[in-house]
Amino acid sequence: QSYCHRLQYDMYFLTSTSRLNEQVVDKIVLQLNRVYPQILTNEEAEKFRNPKASLHTRLSDLLKHLQKKGDRHCQEFYRALQINAEQLYNDLPSRKILKTPDPTEIDTDKEQYMLNDRGPVFFLACFSVAAGLALFWYCCNSETQVIGRARRILGFSPIIIGRHVRNICMLYLEDMSRN
């Protein structure tokens, strides 16, 4: 979408009452007059800064003038608006259309949230169940000599699973080795 079309789309929003005040319009006109490349000549800048005309009329004339001049001039107006009235620039209807995502496009932030909405406690619970099942499967496998290896692993893990749990597991392993 060209800047001229965007400006035409935003014209009513910009010219409605109390959107832009006198000082902001003057700053925008001065910036368009003084910035390189010069968008407004000195005579045009004086015309759009004339305090005898109403703000609505001056702003409407400025926007129409920029649309006649071309896309580059409209782009510079948007840049000046962003610098001098950023909140208004962000609220422009054309900006909201540009920010609206494609309905067929997947929102990765939302997808990431949907995958991780359970929290850390859920992760720890699932991990504990998986680790317990793996240890149980490893210990109950009759093809390997698990008892000695499991005793070594559990003997070095008082920090991980706690002293009481380790003692219970060691007693269970000793009972299994006697049978």
Automatic annotation (TrEMBL):
- Mode of membrane association: Single-pass membrane protein
* Stretches that traverse the bilayer: 120-138
Q: Where in the cell is it found?
A: Endoplasmic reticulum membrane; Mitochondrion membrane
Q: Name one GO cellular component term.
A: endoplasmic reticulum membrane
Q: Which InterPro entries match?
A: CARD, CARD19, CARD_BinCARD, DEATH-like_dom_sf
Judging by the UniProt lineage, the source's domain of life is: Eukaryota
Offer one Pfam family short name for this entry. Answer: CARD
> Does the record bear Hydrolase in its keywords?
no
One Gene Ontology BP term is:
regulation of apoptotic process
Q: Key word Zinc-finger present in the record?
A: no
CARD domain location is 38-96
Alphabetized UniProt keyword annotations: Disulfide bond, Endoplasmic reticulum, Membrane, Mitochondrion, Transmembrane, Transmembrane helix
Question: What is annotated about its quaternary structure and interactions?
Answer: Associates with BCL10 by CARD-CARD interaction.
Return the protein name.
Caspase recruitment domain-containing protein 19
Write down the species: Agelaius phoeniceus (Red-winged blackbird)
